[in-house]
Amino acid sequence: MTRVKSATQPKLSIVFLNYNRLAETRYTLEQLSWLWEQRHDIEVIAIDNGSTDGTKEFLQTQTHWVQVIYLPNNSGIAGYNEGFQQAQGNYLLVLDDDSHPVDHITLDRIIECLDTHPEIGIVACRIESIQGQPLSTWHLPQPDTPGLSMAFVGCGFAIRRSLFEQVGWYPPEFFLYQNEIEVAIRVLCQHYKIYYDPNCRIIHRQSPLGRTHWRRVYYPTRNTIWIIRRYFPLPIAAYLITSRLCFGLIRALQSFELAWYYQAVKEAFFTPIEPQILSPQLRQQLTIFLEENSILHQIFKRLRSRSG
């Protein structure tokens, strides 16, 4: 890793992970460079997860302004943790290699919010398309107005570095998907709030590279069941797990990935999990998560949308 020396300690560390998406990494750094050039309170950290497509070589040409960490193999989201640990800022802005902030206003609002509201642990950003339209996701509040949120989207959120370290960074065993929900729950358990600010705007270009069908079957199925087993009591957990098994099976049949579904289910149940059952008050804050993992709720939701 090459460090950029700075006269002042950065307030905000912008951290993103790269893996075999050279074009997206180039574009993201182009967008970040003009922000970095005009500020003295940010740093940019790029982690390469063992890319073989020229991304590593490109990043080597950017070390005059980007702190680069090279990992030998693709370790999934665990690669982020290497960057988080090296970050010098009080706050971390976490991106994907295909996302970037719209402007300086986003950075200013993140810093101001976390500076002036000690009860807020995470700022969830508005995730939008290149055309400026909000991307639909259950992780963020509806309607699109400022307020408390149950969760955040991993391609655009800010978190207190000390808090992230306290809750153990991203869970490396997840590798991919649902890690944001695990972190959100841990943050809520520490009695911090997650605040959604639609004026903190992140463009997500949604590159399809690397998003293979088997990953969308295997990791969401396994990781979601892990979360349910850890935090929810019977009989709620039994119902949610049954629902998640149905959702995973449907996706596996659609994408012809039954072998990966079987592997996900096996690991979901045979991996030891230390229970940390949430209080009723905390479970109430996770109502949207419960609804998203309820097969009856999803059926009624579809019926209402068709009748409406």
What portion of residues is helical?
Answer: 40-55%
Question: How many structural domains are formed by the residues?
Answer: 2
- Tally of strands: 9
Low-confidence stretches: 1-5
> Kindly, what is the distance between the CA atoms of the first and last residues, rounded to a whole number of angstroms?
55 Å
Q: Main beta sheet: strand number and arrangement?
A: 9 strands, mixed
Oligomer: single chain
CATH superfamily of the largest domain: Spore Coat Polysaccharide Biosynthesis Protein SpsA, Chain A
Order of helices and strands: EHEHEHEEHEEEHHEHHHHHH
What's the tally of helices?
12
- Strand residue content: 15-25%
CATH architecture of the largest domain: Alpha-Beta Complex
What's the gyration radius in Å?
19 Å
Q: In a few lines, what is going on in this structure?
A:
The protein has 308 residues and is α/β, with parallel strands linked by helices. It has helices at 22-37, 55-60, 78-86, 104-116, 161-166, 179-189, 213-231, 236-255, 258-270, 280-285, 287-292, 295-307, and strands at residues 12-18, 42-49, 67-71, 91-95, 99-101, 120-128, 147-148, 156-160, 193-204. Strands 1, 2, 3, 4, 5, 6, 7, 8 and 9 form a 9-stranded mixed beta sheet that branches.
